[in-house]
Amino acid sequence: MSGRGQHIDRVVIVGGGTAGWMTAAALGRMLGALGLSITLVESASIGTVGVGEATLPQIRTFNRLLGIDEAEMMARTAATIKLGIEFRDWGRPGDHYIHPFGTYGEELGDAPFIQYWARASAMGAAASIGEYSLPIVAALAGRFEPPSEDGRHQPYDYAFQFDAGLYAAWLAELAQAAGVIRREGRIVAVRREGESGQIGSVLLETGETIDGDLFIDCSGFRALLIGDTLGSAFEDWSHWLPCNRAFAVPCGNGGDHGPYTRATARRAGWQWRIPLQHRVGNGLVYCNDWWEDQAACDFLMAHLESDAGAEPRQLSFSTGRRKSLWSGNCIAIGLAGGFLEPLESTSIDLIQSGILNLVELFPGEVIEESDRAEYNRLMDLEFERIRDFLVLHYVANQREEEFWSAMREMAIPQSLSDKIEDFRTRAILPEYAEGLFQPVSWISVFLGQNVVPQGWDPRTDALGETDLAQQLEDMRQRMAADAGSMPTHLDYIRNAGASFPASIVHP
To answer: How far apart (Å, rounded) are the C-alpha atoms in residues 495 and 326?
Structure first.
């Protein structure tokens, strides 16, 4: 490649933002000992999407790999804690539930807890499933402390809500301190090798040529390398996830700093709310076939809890992914590789998955076809399982608007149809060795949106009805007491170095 044989020692990252600088910082930290030359090319004149502010617990693993101190990260990115995602009005107007970063219940016998709950619920002897989940009870009470390591409490995890721009800027500092070279400039041409057709270099408008052996496309929706240059086809999933527009706008906090993100179903889409230390991130995701742009924007602005901190910014997108995220000597990470609406905060996690899979499969002397195939297999699984989980939110609804009726009646992937039927009949749930969204995630959406199991595991019959009801009640009270013993979320993040605006009154 590039006149230097097949050895991979020059990596070029095209694009900055969250995807580019997460990639640069990770490669600099984890592969720096290989003696790689890592160059990131970005142009200050090209904006980034940068609305992703909510994360999943996997971000904590990523931060640890980079040697990031959690308290410093929270202070530098205006972060708050996230114990889960609250969904309002998704089943029927007035419904609400939380998808927690934890589990439900405790061991009661040989069958999973959900089987005992399903039986008790049919008996009228069970509370709402959320009352048996410590992160849900704590989130609704506005409380948080890191999970105990001594087994005193039900296990749970947490993530962050932070300013993605501040996070990317900090990672840029860390990456450059680790030896990553930043080049400012707009790319005007991409040169491909004659025989192989692989990418050899990029040309900047300044006239500078940057050669590389491995290129990482973090150019966002432009997909400059993976799409425009290499022609990796985009697989459009709009027939399953038709929302294709969003408006995003910050505002002041109206007084709720609860440790969770909120997604509220609206007439033809949904509205997000993400509380940070210094502001609230808001947005409306919608389908312009069902909601005109100006009307959608007006609705969002009329449903903010405080004055807007900027003009609303519109985004246009199509849901789907590249059929090959690793093509030739180019890997697409972030929006260049695909987009799934941010309903379950998966955007940053998909970036992280792409990076860590690349680190595991990073080529040495030559790029092997088997490495490309394995990378694409892993990322395909990630995208498809997230897709099915997001589609579930839309099809499992009982709302009356035309958009929601159409979502309920649409043809869905067979893989999702099978999951719904398995849960409805006997509370059977998918469990994956790889990928996001294990059984607790599916339970939260199924039950939260009124998909109720009609049967359960017969092994639960070994526990008598009276004993089952009493154990569930003891468990419910224990969750409430454990949550009540935690400090408030505001106290926790203040002690972690938070700097709140003077207008916030602390309880």
So the answer is: 43
Closest CA to 493 of 134, 109, 77, 201: 77
Give catalytic residues, as residue numbers.
82
Say if 387 falls within a structural domain: no
* 279 part of a folded domain: yes
Residue 398: how many other CB atoms lie within 10 Å: 14
The answer to whether residues 246 and 476 touch, using CB atoms and an 8 Å cutoff, is: no
| In contact, 377 and 355? CB cutoff 8 Å | no
Structural domain including 259 reads 245-316
Residue 401 lies in a domain: no
Which residue's entry shows tokens 């006239």?
207
Distance CA 421, CA 503 (A): 50
Extract the tokens encoding 488.
């408030």
CA 197 to CA 154: how far, in whole Å? 54
**Domain tally for the chain?**
3
pLDDT, tens digit, 9 for 90 and up, residues 43-91: 887 655 445 589 999 999 999 999 999 999 999 999 999 999 999 999 9
pTM, entire model:
0.93
In a domain, 393, yes or no: no
> 3-state class of 146 per DSSP?
coil
- Contact (Cβ atoms closer than 8 angstroms) between residue 238 and residue 320: yes
C-alpha 100/C-alpha 84 separation (Å) is 4
What is the rounded CA–CA span in Å between residue 470 and residue 108?
Answer: 12
pLDDT digits (tens, 9 = 90+) for 296-321: 999 999 999 999 999 999 999 999 99
**CATH code for position 33:** 3.50.50.60
Within this chain, do residues 221 and 357 fall inside the same structural domain, yes or no?
yes
